[in-house]
Structure formats: C-alpha cells, structure tokens
Amino acid sequence: MNTAHHNPLQHPLGAWFAYSASALFIVALVTLGQAIGWPGILREPPATVFPRIHANHVAMLAGYACYLLSSLALVPVALALREKLLAGGVSTIVVDAVTFFGLAGAIFKALGIVRWLIGMPGLAAQYMESTSQSEREVLEVAYLTLNGYAGSVGELLGVQLTGGIWMLGISICVLRRFGRRWVSALGILSGLGFIVLTARIFVTEVAALQSFVNPIGLAWVIALGWTMSRRSS
C-alpha cells in the first residue's frame, strides 16, 4: 500500500462523529458548569444539590442531553475504527475485543447520565415541595444511593475502566499497524490515565489525576477525528 497517497484511517463519517462527540462534550461542560456547577456539584450534599437542580432544571436537562449524545456518538467512532483496523490486517479477535470495550463504555456512560435526565429532576422537585423533614431525609438518602450507584456505573465502569481500555487498545493497534505516533501517544496516555483512575475507590488521592486525564482524552478524540478526516497521510 502506498501510504504517501492514501490514508488507511480515512473515514469521513467516523471523523464527523468524533468531532461531534468532542463538540457536544464541550457544550455539556460549559452548560452544566454555568447551570449547576458541574462537575463539582457531584461532590456536594443533597441539600445543596436539590435547590440548584430545581432552579436550573431546563439548562441541566439540555447539558446532560448533550453529554448523553456525546457518549453515544463514540459508538460509530468505535465501529469505524473497527472497520479500518480489520481492513489494515489487525487480528479480528483483537479488534473485536477492543471494540467491545468501546461499546460497553458508551453504554455504561449512557446509563450513568440518564439518572440526571429522569431520576434527579423528580427527586429535586419532591424535595423542594416537601415540608416534612423526615420526607426530605428519605429523598436525600435516595439521592445518595442513586448517585452512588449510577455514578459508579457511568464514571467508574464507563468513562474510566472500559473507556480507558478501549482508548489504550485502539491506540496500540493504530501505532503498530499505521504509525500515527502523536495520536497514538495521546490515546495511550489518556487510556492508561483513565484506567489508573479506577483505583480511586481504594486510594482517594488518585482522583486528583482526573483534571489532567480528561483534557488529554478530549484532545485524543479531536486528534482522532482529524486523522480520520485527512485525505492523505
């Protein structure tokens, strides 16, 4: 194959979805940050969270809808990469295994995000309308339970574990088969970073790495879109 005139990773549709995932995430980050102070609000007590959700209900729904679409947009990106890696001669078993983690990550993230579109607004509305302290305490427990469970599914399993394995696996395959050193380096670095972040359930200090790993992961998706949109290498 003459790579001087052909880009084996070119996939315009996959590139479009990679760019869309990045843009939607940035919109979600800005919208949720202004509306409810996300992601810092995730560490606040229910008594602080509920009034903020209730007062900014529409903006919160818009922000999390963008975040959900951003996560789902990575599904066609994973499938496009699978197509290109198979065409490039990478083992079917390896490619399918890596793709499985990419699809699983998107599903886990979506499950975690949905709680903010369906569960949390209802809890916040009940909390703000209630005049009973005991009922409010029950709603606070419900919030902590739902946030703890769904948050772990979305962030721990989706973003960090399965998402990190997908980034790492895809980047190694791309590096070994097609080169693309700087794009692969971003993917390997972010993938390893996300996997390391799963240790935060045992070592809480590890969570500090998130402020560095997230931007690198976003940069990798953008770089991946750029690579897949190029007509020649």
Shape, per Cα inertia axes:
elongated
The averaged pLDDT comes out at 93
Low-confidence stretches: none
Helix content range: over 70%
Tell me the strand percentage band. under 5%
Summed up, the domain count is 1
What's the number of extended β-strand segments? 0
Radius of gyration: 20 Å
Description:
With 233 residues, this protein is an all-alpha fold. The protein has one domain. The chain is built from seven helices and no strands. The protein has helices at 12-36, 46-55, 57-87, 92-129, 133-178, 181-197, 210-229. Helix 1 packs antiparallel against helix 3, helix 2 (46-55) crosses helix 4 (92-129) and helix 6 (181-197) packs antiparallel against helix 7. The protein is elongated and about 65 Å long. 38% of the residues are buried.
Offer a quick outline of the entry:
With 233 residues, the protein is mainly alpha-helical. Helix content is 80%, strand content 0%.
